[in-house]
Amino acid sequence: MRIRCDQCRKKISVDDAFAGGVCRCPYCKAINMVGGDAMATTTRARPEAPGGRPEAPGAAAPEEATAPQAAPAPAPEREVPMARPVFVQGVVTMVLLGLLILMLAAGAYLAILLLGARDKGEGIPPIAPAPVSQPANPFQAASPGTVAGNVPVAAPVIYLIDGGSSMKSGFDYAAHFTRTSILSLKAEQKFNVLVSLEEGDVALSDEFQDGGEEGAKKAKDFLYKVQDSGAGIGASDIPRAMDAALAKKPGTIVLFLRKVLNDPPALAAKLQAAKVRIVILSLDSDSQAIGSAEALVKGAGGVSRTYTFSQLQDWLRMAPR
Fold first, then answer.
1. pLDDT in tens, 88-146
2. Whole-structure pTM value
3. Buried (b) or exposed (e) across 58-72, using 16+ Cβ within 10 A?
4. Which residue in 66, 70, 138, 315 has the fewest CB atoms around it within 10 Å?
5. Contact at 8 Å (CB) between 160 and 253?
6. Within a domain: 85
7. How many domains does the chain fold into?
8. Containing domain of residue 191, as a range?
9. Residue 244: is its pLDDT beyond 60?
């Protein structure tokens, strides 16, 4: 087919396939629209015999017979595709129906169980929330007869404090521990305080004292006096002090220290033989000291707690004075 360029007005030969589309002019490179009716050509039927000449001179030429135009064929009807059922949708429907049946069956089963329990007079136990474990403030007695906040002690109690150089920075904390624990004791629950120094062991008294406020005041004055007279200097002797404490036949020994214990199995054997419970409070100790304390507790049976100075400082600010 041939079209004329809209820009340069030159005729362009275009393939029939471009009908209804666009083409580029080979002369000016302009884009031209190719009409859809460019393909439509009119044809005239040729006569069966030449009749364009007159048969005789002077006669008019016969009229050319034009072929009758064929009636346009009716446009074919468009075939509308028929939708087919989707197999996947059927499978999903069946699965959902199955789940619904299972849920209904489970609900019916639970209803039967609840009705049966109600007939028997049984109730559904309430679901209690799991307790959140938080470290107790060791300077606030959570319950009577405790140390370190919530560790129970059996009277009579001996508070054994390492008074050597390793406890120089922790002696004040040990004194606060002791005072708080004595305040939680009743008057009939007896106690004593023993400090291990380099030159020997110093006790609050030869006899056990009554617990409560009066006993806590005596222990506080005694420990401050020992601290001013040389506690925190030199090397203490924990095995020696342990023998002195066991000689008083206590029910519980509360041991405050920071250093490594020598021969924990031997100390554990003595505690077991005397049937005395041990509670060890390690104050900002290193890993070796903590390991020796845990070995003693494991062999003798008792409780071991470890505290850092930063923890104790925060708790001490909140503790009553």
1. 667 788 889 889 999 999 888 888 887 776 555 544 444 444 343 446 778 877 678 88
2. 0.58
3. eeeeeeeeeeeeeee
4. 70
5. yes
6. no
7. 2
8. 146-318
9. yes
